[in-house]
Amino acid sequence: MRQHVSREELLQIIDEHWMLEDPDRNEYAFLFRMIQERHRTQFERAFQQPEPSQYKAMQRYFRTIDQQRNRAEEILYWLYLDNELRRQGKTFPDQAEAKREGEDPPLA
Q1: Is the pLDDT of residue 8 over 60?
Q2: What's the predicted TM-score (pTM) here?
Q3: Buried b or exposed e, range 15-48, using 16+ CB within 10 angstroms
Q4: Most-buried pick from 1, 9, 17, 64 (CB within 10 A)?
Q5: In this predicted model, what pLDDT tens digit does every residue of 15-32 receive, in sequence order?
Q6: DSSP state of 26
Q7: Rounded to whole angstroms, how far apart are CA atoms 88 and 86?
Q8: Taking the CA of residue 80 as centre, how many other CA atoms within 13 Å lie in the half-sphere pointing to its CB?
Q9: How many CB atoms lie under 10 A from the CB of residue 58?
Q10: Are 65 and 39 in contact (CB under 8 A)?
Q11: Positive or negative CA dihedral for 67, 72, 77, 78?
Q12: What is the pLDDT of residues 27-81, one digit of tens each?
């Protein structure tokens, strides 16, 4: 069962980790940079066909690429969290159990 991650939590991880890291040294920063670049390219490409009759199609397209970007960032968040837990010798079930027992589960 997939847990929902708030946009606020995703943005916190992005701001605190991926935006500060060197993409040449940090795989998550590198992947995040690729997501940003792909989204920027798709966004710019949409404006290369500025016919007024295409307005509704462009709106749908923008919603689609935003959803794709959000999903890619969410997947990257879970990969990052999994990696951090593994570094601590823990797993998602360990974290869920700690949460049930009232402990503060370790994040990054």
Answers
A1: yes
A2: 0.61
A3: eebbeebeeeebebbebbbebbeebeebeeebee
A4: 17
A5: 777 776 677 887 887 888
A6: -
A7: 5
A8: 23
A9: 14
A10: yes
A11: positive
A12: 887 888 888 888 888 888 877 766 777 778 888 888 898 888 888 888 888 888 8
Q: What are the structure tokens assigned to 107, written together? A: 């994040």
Name the residue among 24, 25, 17 with its Cα closest to residue 84.
Answer: 17
Across 75-98, average pLDDT:
80
Query: What pLDDT score does 62 carry?
Result: 85
- Integer Cα distance of 76 and 46 in angstroms: 25
Residues in the chain: 108
**Residues 35, 73: contact at Cβ < 8 Å?**
yes
